[in-house]
Design goal:
By secondary structure, this protein is an alpha+beta fold. The chain has eight helices and 20 strands.
Length: 389
């Protein structure tokens, strides 16, 4: 696939909404105390959030956290046990009132694209327009616009099996855009594509939706995909909201140890909490490492057990372990592999419990090398330690 984004005709499109969440935008989606149970399993636990016109929200979390259930409730494919959903100010879902999916003004792009296999590209795109009994001339004009917008010219008569994965996805997006929905739902839209196409498509989709001013509710398990597309992230954990904020807020100040790990801070150092003149820190034996406490609602007791989380790419490798390094700990290299642009090493700390850590760096290291790992305090996150559920 080779889409030239600069060639997309945008003369009549609204101004870009590339800035993050804009308070002046009209409210679109309101979810209040939404609960959904499947027998004894509680898929959603009274979650509440809102979404504004033109916003892209990515719902992020692992399998079983409630992402698909939430999407189904918004789409009208399931009904809530408690709470309600409002779209454009009217209730579309509650345990007493369910507006049919076809009357919600909501379209979905499914994980497997759900294209009609016996219909060609044109027939798939205009399917919804024909069901709405739109005038034939208007259908042809809308089809021409979408074929050009999604770079599908020349593929009009191909069947889905004759298309690549990226082409099938663009047809699914064109079909969803055809009826001009109030809200676009994306269900793991890139999971069936190879890595190169995933990177290309997530960028192109974000660009396209913002240029069109489309409101998008996007479900994914991939943090990179969520960051590439979203104005705000809705991080779900075990049916509840772990964090809801802009991409930058969630990245720079993860609300929990669990969210930090999900967003790439996979290294954890256990120690006891200390407060120094320089700020919050953990003590590991004689070593003190400074960080930040990103959760403003979390309280810390001097000497209590805590964990410091940081990302592999945000540590600096120092070879002169005898020098004054500052906010660093000594380690020995166990393993080093080349990952294309950088090297990844597994190292073991020389403090306390001899914990294993992952670090990314520019130059190769050899097993047995003694190094120092220096942390940037602003990207080292301290949380009260509790066993993961």
């Amino acid at each position: 696939m080779n889409m030239n984004l600069s060639a997309i005709a945008m003369e009549e499109l609204p101004a870009s909404t590339e800035n993050n969440h804009k308070p002046q935008a009209a409210m679109l989606l309101e979810v209040s105390q939404l609960t959904k149970n499947y027998g004894s399993f509680q898929a959603l636990r009274g979650i509440s959030f809102d979404m504004r016109q033109g916003e892209i929200i990515s719902v992020l979390g692992p399998s079983g956290c409630g992402k698909s259930t939430l999407l189904q409730l918004v789409a009208g494919l399931a009904s809530p046990d408690e709470g309600h959903i409002k779209l454009d100010g009217r209730v579309i879902a509650s345990n007493k009132n369910m507006l049919p999916p076809e009357k919600r003004g909501v379209n979905m792009v499914f994980q497997d694209y759900a294209l009609w296999p016996h219909m060609n590209v044109t027939e798939n795109i205009v399917y919804g327009l024909r069901r709405q009994r739109m005038d034939r001339g208007d259908i042809e004009q809308r089809l021409t616009e979408l074929l050009e917008l999604l770079h599908l010219e020349g593929l009009e008569h191909r069947l889905p099996p004759q298309l690549s994965g990226g082409q099938q996805q663009r047809v699914a997006i064109a079909r969803a855009l055809a009826t001009r929905p109030n809200l676009m739902l994306l269900d793991e839209p890139l999971s069936n594509l190879d890595m190169r196409l995933r990177v290309e498509m997530r960028t192109e989709m974000a660009y396209l939706f913002r240029k069109l001013g489309i409101s998008v509710f996007h479900v994914t398990h991939d943090p990179d995909e969520a960051f590439a597309m979203a104005d705000r992230l809705l991080i779900l954990r075990a049916g509840g909201i772990d964090q809801f904020g802009t991409s930058q807020q969630c990245y720079s100040k993860p609300a929990s140890r669990w969210a930090a790990s999900l967003l790439g801070a996979i290294n954890g150092l256990r120690g006891t909490f200390v407060h120094t003149p320089q700020g919050a820190a953990i003590r590991m034996g004689e070593q003190v490492l400074h960080g930040i406490t990103p959760n403003v609602d979390e309280t810390f007791i001097e000497g209590s057990e805590v964990i410091l989380m940081f990302r592999p790419e945000e540590a600096t490798i120092l070879h002169d372990v005898s020098a004054e390094t500052g906010n660093a700990l000594q380690a020995v290299v166990l393993h080093c592999t080349f990952e294309g642009m950088r090297w990844r090493s597994v190292v073991q700390t020389q403090e306390g419990q001899k914990q294993k850590l992952y670090v990314l760096h520019e130059e190769p290291l050899s097993p047995g090398d003694r190094i120092a790992v220096r942390l940037r305090s602003s990207s080292a996150f301290i949380y009260n330690f509790e066993e993961e559920r």
